[in-house]
Amino acid sequence: MKTERIKRLNNLESLIDYRFEDIHLLNRALTHSSYSNEMRDPHVSDNERLEFLGDSVIALGISALLISQFPALQEGDLSKLRASVVNEHSLAEVASLLALGTYLLLGKGEEASGGRKKASILADSFEAVIGAVFLDGGYEKTFPLIKKIFEPLVARGTGESYHRDFKSMLQELCQKEYDTIPRYEHIGKRGPDHDTLFEVRISIGDKIGAEGTGRNKKMAEQDAARKALDKLIDKAE
Question: CA-to-CA distance for 131 and 137, rounded, in angstroms?
């Protein structure tokens, strides 16, 4: 590996606050298949195996974070929350913050088509970097990195974006399976002024319905969407 490339990778190490014992692992994590295919060199490996590993390591790390921070949440809610935190959009967002695209080795065709800014490539490359850290330093060194990067996304995921996620997942499923969208109806509220619960009814054509409650209308809609989503998933199974 050329000295200039090593210096570039050292800059990225500083950004992620991790120093590799084997810098070649980081280089491989940033090598897209389009580049390795063009090089036609058996010694140049792409990042797909590291991406596969990193995907699992991130899922494990986020699961550990959620279990620790939300001891009352059940498995189904934990899974949905994890999905709202770890997805192509969020991974690409993290990769962009690290300017990961500028470190990628891309083939000429992928370079010309704007590969450095493609969400899918950025997300995959970030997963590969995490996979490389795991191989280089083990889970003990990888988890602090995952925690540092994803704690703000976990916090954001438990806010309004998390509530929107249940509704968006439900809407996507309804459009796909029933060619319709959910309809929300605010049916009332109960309790004293200082402890009011809002009530929402959701209907999906004449197929299924559910009711939810919450401290405000948005939370009630989220609760109803979650319950309707659970019913649809149970029905599909």
Answer: 10
What's the chain's Rg over C-alpha atoms?
22
Q: What is the dihedral of CA 7, 13, 17, 18, to 10 degrees?
A: -120
Class in CATH terms, 3-157: mainly alpha
Chain position carrying tokens 């494990």: 60
- Pick the closest to residue 124 from 20, 52, 59 (CA basis): 52
Structure tokens at 146: 């995952």
Sheet-wide strand order for 197-204: 183-190, 197-204, 208-214
Mapping DSSP to helix (H, G, I), strand (E, B) and coil, where does residue 72 land?
A: coil
Q: Count Cα atoms within 13 angstroms, Cβ side, for 103.
A: 26
- Tally of residues, the chain: 237
Using CB atoms within 10 A of its CB, is residue 3 exposed (0-12), middle (13-18) or buried (19+)?
Answer: exposed
* Contact between residue 186 and residue 217 where contact means Cβ atoms under 8 Å apart: yes
The DSSP bridge partners found for residue 190 are: 197
Task: Give 102's pLDDT tier (boundaries 50, 70, 90).
Answer: very high
Can you give the residue ranges of every domain in the chain? 3-157, 160-236
| Residues ≥6 apart with Cβ < 8 Å to 68 | none
| Positions marked catalytic | 55, 127
Domain 160-236 has CATH 1.10.490.160: no
Span 17-54, pLDDT tens digits: 999 999 999 999 999 999 888 887 777 889 999 999 99
pTM for the full model? Answer: 0.67
Asked whether the domain spanning 160-236 has the same topology as the one spanning 3-157, the reply is no
